[in-house]
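User: Sequence recovery, please. Input:
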């Protein structure tokens, strides 16, 4: 421990602070004495109700039975709301899984169509390459040969006709695949729209049911106790 300096207390300052504190305490006690509440004066009156003890006990028993019924009704409403929420959650999960499965199926179909298109295109190119090689092996015919067609001209004509038929067939297949893909996309969009509308209607019906249940509970609370009848199931 290093060196330190000891400062002696100021007795005059301490006495002044003590006098100020004592004066504040005295003022507080005097204020309490001045503002002390006076005695309570009540007008004498007869206590108790106009009903007899038997009527009071009967009314108390009826209120107890009504309270039990209300608690039972609240528990039933809570169980129903919880069950409805669980069913809605299950339906939502099923709808999500169904959408995933449909998207996966559409994706598989699209991949299959792409593979088929690639296969047909590759087959088309190979066929054209074969026909081009066959055409390159034939001699070129002049005007005289065109006028007098021989076996070579006939082979070239058959090759050209076969090539043209293949092109038309490939174009027709591609057009059919495009139309089929377009129809599937439109059908998928229509189904998604229907499911979205069904989910919206289900959500609106659930909200309407919850609101009606809340209004029924509110109406039961606002009804007077005298209207309660034992055995009434609502």
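Assistant: Recovered sequence (234 residues):
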């Amino acid at each position: 421990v290093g060196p330190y300096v000891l400062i002696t207390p100021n007795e005059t300052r301490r006495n002044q602070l003590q006098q100020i504190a004592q004066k504040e305490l005295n003022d507080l006690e005097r204020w309490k004495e001045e503002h002390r509440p006076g005695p309570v004066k009540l007008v004498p009156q007869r206590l108790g109700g106009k009903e007899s003890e038997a009527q009071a006990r009967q009314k108390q028993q009826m209120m107890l039975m009504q309270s039990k019924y209300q608690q039972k009704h609240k528990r039933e409403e809570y169980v129903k709301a919880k069950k409805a929420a669980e069913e809605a959650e299950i339906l939502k999960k099923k709808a999500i899984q169904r959408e995933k499965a449909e998207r996966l199926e559409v994706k598989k179909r699209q991949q299959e169509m792409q593979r088929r298109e690639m296969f047909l295109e590759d087959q088309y190119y190979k066929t054209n390459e074969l026909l081009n090689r066959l055409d390159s092996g034939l001699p070129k015919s002049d005007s005289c040969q065109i006028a007098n067609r021989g076996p070579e001209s006939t082979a070239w004509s058959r090759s050209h006709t076969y090539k043209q038929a293949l092109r038309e067939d490939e174009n027709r297949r591609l057009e059919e695949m495009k139309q089929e893909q377009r129809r599937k996309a439109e059908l998928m969009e229509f189904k998604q729209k229907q499911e979205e509308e069904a989910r919206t209607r289900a959500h609106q019906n659930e909200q309407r049911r919850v609101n009606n249940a809340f209004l029924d509970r509110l109406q039961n609370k606002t009804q007077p106790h005298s209207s309660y009848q034992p055995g009434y199931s609502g």
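The CA atoms of residues 154 and 160 lie 10 Å apart.
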